[in-house]
Write a structure and sequence with these properties.
By secondary structure, the chain is of the alpha/beta class. The protein has eight helices and eleven strands. The chain has one domain: TIM Barrel (Alpha-Beta Barrel), CATH 3.20.20. It is globular and about 45 Å long. The two termini are 18 Å apart.
């Protein structure tokens, strides 16, 4: 039987190999609001935290960003931190930085070693992907290369190709997120997840978004997605479900499929 790959840090699977992991986003616009989010989120025991720094109103101040990242890590303890500037072209917030400045921010944050994983879109220039990959590898930070389509769900071949492209570009984790127009699109995403998980050398993360897509967040792990995003305090994308609900469903699936 095909066994999907867990996401590992420093050679050890996160959360002792739990599959799938649950990641909750932090979307506070100020330092104080992020700290308040953590007070709500951490008691719910997420496996990973994602800091969506494009929501942070001081994103242009590298010192403030690093200080916030270090504070998140200190408060979160052993919970790994994924650092993400989501491009406005792929559903992120509008920011005042150009791509060169984003790369400089990514470099400084990686060198501060205040994070564990970093996300970058594979639609970016190849040279920028190489820069992010190099600085991440130099600082033992895992690179997630991602693809998002908030308009529709591309065909099966295209989706599998996106996963494979992330692997080829040197990612440690491949991520694909798409918007379904109907349930058939959700099935396409899940089928692509299953097919890619058999072919990839690396773990993958997949999801459909929106109301239909919430199904993929609940059962994506069955098809090979190693992580699902869930709401701890506030959502970062449409279709995310509360962490309590996701834990309930994952527990049911685990028992129903023969887990202990």
């Amino acid at each position: 039987m095909h066994t999907p790959k867990p996401i590992a840090l420093k050679g050890k699977p996160i959360a002792d190999g739990k599959f799938p992991l649950i990641c909750t986003p932090l979307v506070g616009r100020t330092f104080d609001k992020i700290m308040a989010e953590l007070d709500v989120v951490l008691p719910k025991k997420p496996d990973v935290l994602e800091w969506r720094v494009d929501f942070f109103e001081h994103i242009g101040d590298t010192v403030a960003v690093i200080a916030a990242a270090l504070a998140i890590k200190s408060k979160a303890g052993r919970v790994p931190l994924l650092f993400t500037r989501r491009s406005i072209l792929e559903g992120g917030e509008k920011i005042a930085l150009n791509e060169g400045q984003v790369i400089a921010l990514y470099t400084a944050v990686c060198e501060s070693k205040s994070i564990d994983l970093i996300d970058y879109e594979m639609a970016n220039d190849a040279a920028n992907i190489v820069r992010v990959r190099s600085v991440a590898q130099a600082n033992d930070i895992k690179l997630v290369l991602s693809f998002h389509n908030f308009s529709y769900t591309p065909g099966l071949e295209t989706l599998v190709g996106k996963f494979l492209m992330a692997d080829q570009l040197g990612a440690e984790v491949a991520k694909v997120a798409v918007m379904p127009r109907d349930l058939d699109d959700v099935l396409t995403l899940l089928t692509a997840t299953r097919e890619a998980s058999k072919k990839l050398r690396i773990p993958l993360i997949s999801m459909s978004m929106g109301p239909y897509g919430s199904l993929s967040r609940l059962i994506g792990g069955v098809f090979g997605s190693s992580l699902s995003f869930a709401v701890g305090a506030a959502s970062s994308a449409p279709g995310q479900v509360p962490i309590e609900d996701l834990n309930t469903v994952l527990g049911i699936l685990h028992r129903s499929m023969g887990g202990k």
